[in-house]
């Protein structure tokens, strides 16, 4: 296994167990989520296409309420305690949703609640996982290993859509929820292995009693510490704005896709199968990019070029959709954006947090990955609704607007890459 891994990533002695356990944790987590995502997208249309922007605001408000709870958990408990509880909480919720769907004939309000819940779930469990990764691995290890670990997301992302594609129609999309819960619980087994590996690494290094005690307790700071951390740090604020623009670029395409799909497919099971098919090809391409190319591209090009690459791709993608606003072009551009997001943007974004404090890795990162992310969805969703509903703006105009937003995103990515490099150079000098 070591020999195989060394062909894929630049691996140092002793890193293979943690790398494989991290890969497996994310694989199970994403398999769980990607079973749910096509169901969410299909039920989002069922609940009313014009209601989706309002659902984004519902997700944002849920994040606003839950972030202080997450901040309290991270400030009071070590990760080995609160991370299993976070995953276990969401697994229990899945079983409750399954029971609720089976008890009610009218799924309109259940579908809306499920849409909000799934969006919260996807960000919190992934944000919690990457907070752990940023704590377990150093900046130098992150550059080498995070691309491969993110490949676990795409491997899980292949499994989830395959299950949906073959089972959504014969079994019914709702009956896939217990399977998703089981995969989420399985991810806890591999997460425990990652935590044990880090403890073993710390035990083998010369540490003071104070350092060992710090690793075994919560990060402190209080329930609203994350808001203060982001507000006083230009670097963290830059990452938050970067995420905000990233969501704008994504949401315009997502809502355009939903509008087209609503016209073509007329029931939730068929829509689930369609979304699962798109997910399958996206995750396969992402897996190849993450496992085979990311670490080497990062080594050749550096953080700055990698961060700015996807925004530039989306400038051209949106411009193409503006010129040729067809369903096929839309699906192609949106698929490229998702592949580039999984294969390039997300590993780079997670690497940005390897040069911040331990408290910021758990608290500020979670705030940015959840609160800022869904705030961007809500704002861009409302703007889309105002433009297409109230002002009658067509797909071509949405394309040109998206190209402009992507251009601003590219400029911000360039500055953020410079900030990362300065912090990395300062850390090496000290």
Overview of the structural elements:
The protein is mostly helical. It has one domain (8-429): Up-down Bundle (Growth Hormone, Chain: A), CATH 1.20.1250.20. Helices cover 86% and strands 0% of the residues. Helix 2 (16-46) crosses helix 6 and helix 9 (225-232) packs across helix 15 (364-390).
Question: Short description, anyone?
Answer:
This protein is mostly helical and 430 residues long. The protein contains 16 helices and no strands. Helix 4 (79-103) runs antiparallel to helix 7, helix 9 crosses helix 15 (364-390) and helix 10 (234-264) crosses helix 15.
CATH topology: Growth Hormone, Chain: A
Alpha-carbon Rg, integer: 21 Å
The helicity comes to over 70%
Find the CATH superfamily. MFS general substrate transporter like domains
Give the number of DSSP strands. Answer: 0
Cα end-to-end separation = 36 Å
Are there runs of 5+ residues with pLDDT below 50, and where? Answer: 208-220
Helix run count: 16
């Amino acid at each position: 296994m070591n020999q195989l891994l060394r062909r894929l990533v630049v691996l140092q002695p002793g890193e293979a167990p943690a790398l494989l356990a991290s890969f497996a944790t994310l694989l199970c987590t994403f398999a769980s989520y990607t079973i749910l995502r096509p169901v969410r997208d299909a039920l989002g249309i069922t609940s009313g296409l014009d209601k989706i922007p309002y659902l984004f605001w519902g997700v944002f408000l849920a994040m606003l309420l839950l972030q202080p709870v997450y901040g309290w958990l991270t400030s009071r408990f070590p990760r080995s305690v609160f991370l299993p509880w976070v995953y276990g909480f969401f697994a229990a919720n899945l079983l409750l949703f399954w029971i609720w769907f089976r008890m009610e004939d009218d799924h309109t309000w259940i579908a809306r609640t499920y849409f909000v819940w799934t969006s919260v779930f996807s960000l919190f469990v992934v944000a919690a996982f990457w907070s752990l990764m940023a704590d377990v691995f150093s900046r130098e290890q992150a550059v080498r290993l995070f691309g491969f670990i993110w490949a676990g997301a795409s491997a899980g992302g292949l499994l989830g859509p395959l299950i949906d594609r073959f089972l959504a129609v014969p079994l019914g999309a709702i009956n896939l929820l217990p399977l998703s819960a089981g995969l989420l619980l399985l991810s806890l087994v591999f997460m425990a292995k990652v935590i044990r590996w880090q403890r073993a690494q710390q035990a083998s290094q010369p540490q003071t009693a104070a350092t060992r005690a710090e690793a075994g307790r919560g990060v402190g700071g209080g329930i609203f510490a994350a808001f203060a951390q982001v507000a006083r740090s230009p670097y963290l604020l830059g990452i938050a704005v970067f995420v905000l623009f990233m969501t704008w670029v994504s949401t315009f395409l997502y809502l355009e896709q939903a509008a087209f799909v609503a016209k073509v497919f007329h029931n939730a099971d068929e829509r689930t199968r369609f979304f699962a098919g798109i997910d399958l090809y996206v995750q396969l391409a992402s897996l190849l990019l993450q496992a085979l190319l990311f670490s080497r591209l990062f080594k050749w090009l550096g953080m700055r070029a990698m961060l700015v690459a996807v925004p530039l791709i989306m400038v051209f993608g949106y411009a193409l959709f503006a010129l040729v606003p067809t369903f096929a072009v839309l699906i192609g551009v949106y698929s490229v954006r998702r592949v580039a997001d999984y294969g390039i943007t997300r590993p780079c974004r997670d690497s940005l947090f390897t040069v911040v404090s331990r408290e910021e890795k758990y608290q500020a990162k979670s705030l940015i990955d959840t609160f800022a992310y869904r705030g961007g969805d809500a704002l861009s969703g409302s703007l889309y609704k105002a433009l297409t509903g109230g002002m009658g703006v067509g797909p071509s105009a949405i394309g040109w607007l998206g190209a402009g937003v992507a251009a601003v995103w590219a400029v911000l990515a360039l500055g953020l890459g410079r900030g990362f490099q300065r912090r990395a150079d300062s850390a090496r000098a000290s």
